[in-house]
Each structure stands twice: as structure tokens, then as C-alpha cells.
Amino acid sequence: MTGMIQYLPIEESFIKGEGLYFILCIWVHGYKQGIGNRQGEGIGSELLAAAEADAQSRGATGMAAWGLWLPVWMKASWFKKHGYKVADREVISLLVWKAFTANAAKPHWIRQRKSVPLIKGKVAVHAFLNGWCPAQNEIYEHARRACEELGEPVVFIRYDTTDPEVFAEWGISDGIFIDGKSISHGPPISYEKMINKIMGRVKKHSKCSC
Fold this sequence. Notes:
Mean pLDDT: 91
CATH architecture of the largest domain: 3-Layer(aba) Sandwich
CATH topology of the largest domain: Aminopeptidase
Number of domains: 2
Structural class: alpha+beta
Number of helices: 5
Order of helices and strands: EEEHEHEEEEHEHEEH
Radius of gyration: 19 Å
Helix content: 25-40%
């Protein structure tokens, strides 16, 4: 596969908006293996233009996307070059959008609505999973495996945020929280780093008996 773009009506996403379509992911093959690195050939721009045209044909008033201000992947700066403007910001992620009509309404992040609780005497790992993002799926699996391996001192709690009621309760689409602290911002961490983070909390609990 040379590239892909994944988008849907914003009302079905984890973003607050109305009448827009929202881009979950855009990707162009960038590895030497297989068909080779195809980035920098305008394929992403063509995919974006096709998605915008499709959204407009379905009556969308605009298109929104998320992007990182860090120069890694899903770069917000790339969307800005294609006429997108910043609508909202959260940690390292920017919410960007482009209006197709004069009456288009700016979208907003749906933010975390309540704190992730601690569990007395245990290391609590709370995992929120929506399933749309391969990177978040990978982080989730690393956390699940680590908790399974560590066993007794750890409690692993999963939240299926494809359930609208669950998402509405927490305002968290995807994320891993260890003892209430989020660790899932940025690129996916390895299994080794994940288990070391959880083990660090296990050792701290054992010292303070908290």
C-alpha cells in the first residue's frame, strides 16, 4: 500500500464539532523495504484533496484533523501548509481545521472530565482504548502484557471508549494511566519501557506500603 487516509463525520469521533469531517490518520509509505520511500512525492496532498472533495460532496461544512507540533508524524505544520488553521491545543497535539462554508463552526477537543483514581495497596493501570489508532493499540497491548506478567501487585482496568457513554463519562479516547499519571503522550513506548515504568511504581509501593 502506497498510502491511506482515514476520516469520518466529526460527530462520530472524539472531537466536539458539528457538520465537519474529521481526519483520524493520513499515512504515506516511508520505508526502504517493499515499494520504497514514497514520501515527498505529493501523495499525501492528493489523498487530502480527495478526502476534502468527498467530504464536501457529502455536505460537510469543513474538515478537521489532529496533528503534532513536534516534527515526527501527523505534523500539524503539514496541514497548515494546506490551508488549515489551529482550532485548539492540548499538550503536544493541535486540532486544526479548514472551513468549506461561511457558516462552518470551529471544532474543539473533548477534554478529560475526571481524574483517574488510585487503588490503595495496588499499582493501578487504567487503559482507555478506542481502537482506531495502531500506535495506541500497541501501547495498550504493552500495558496489558506487562500487567499480566507482573501479576499480584498490579491492577489492570480497561475502558472501551467506543461506547459513547464511557467516552462521555471520562472524556478520554485513548490513554494509559499508571497510578493516575498519563504516560501515553508522544511516540509509542516499547514493552521494555512500559514494564519498567510499572515495575518502578511497584517498587515504590513496596517501600512506602501505600
